[in-house]
Predict the 3D structure of the following.
Amino acid sequence: VDAPCGGEGTIRKDARALLGWRPDRNPKLAPLQKELIRSGYEALAPGGLLVYSTCTFARAENDEVVEHLLATTDAMEIDLGPVFPEIEESRNEKGRLQVLPHQHDSGGFFTAALRKPGELDPEDDAPLASDPETEALLRERHGLELKDRHLAARRRNDEVFLVPCRADRVLENLRLRRPGFRAGRFEPDGSFTVDHELGLVLGPSFTRGVIEVDRGQAKRYLAGLELDPALLPDGGPTLLRWQGLPLGFATLKLDRFRNLLPATSVRSVI
């Protein structure tokens, strides 16, 4: 979490930074920083590491933000002293670093490290396997040739991720919960459920399994409502686009239009 901050630590290298510094603005940053560090912490897998950093000297934006996370979560702080022994004078009693210009002939910087308790679920750390089945399915269902976009499908248990081609050597040495963006997952019955994310990222390139809707239909869809089932072909999920822009997927279920837009994306007013 490299949080937006007052920026006093950058004034030495760029005096223009002082022009944006205002006493009335800086106190408003701390609530945002607390939201960001909490959001970053919640995104961690068990055993994951969070590094919080700013280029400010303000305690309200540094130590108090870290203390807020420690007080409201189960986060455990890591002493950065052993990691940076050459700047021991910048380490405080909590093991955080507050780099000051007069000590190191540098800019100003603050950083702290925190870990989430636990260990990564072995299921999340399972090896990635080449997945020609999904590549063929996407080609058949949506006319999507992954190799033309320098992507490859990799499967971990039931989840399928799209990763850059020739990234296997890197992925072998990194423990990543999400090694790429998720294309979908295989259900217990063997069917493949496509992810909303796939439609948003690669939907403009779909040549099959896609329909164009008008403005009124787009507004109804984005409000989480049903459309005329006659719009959809039989088969798997269909991507809806408006003026070429992907909106999300829908499918037929018992001859009814089923809106697959995630609940977090539904908007009552468009």
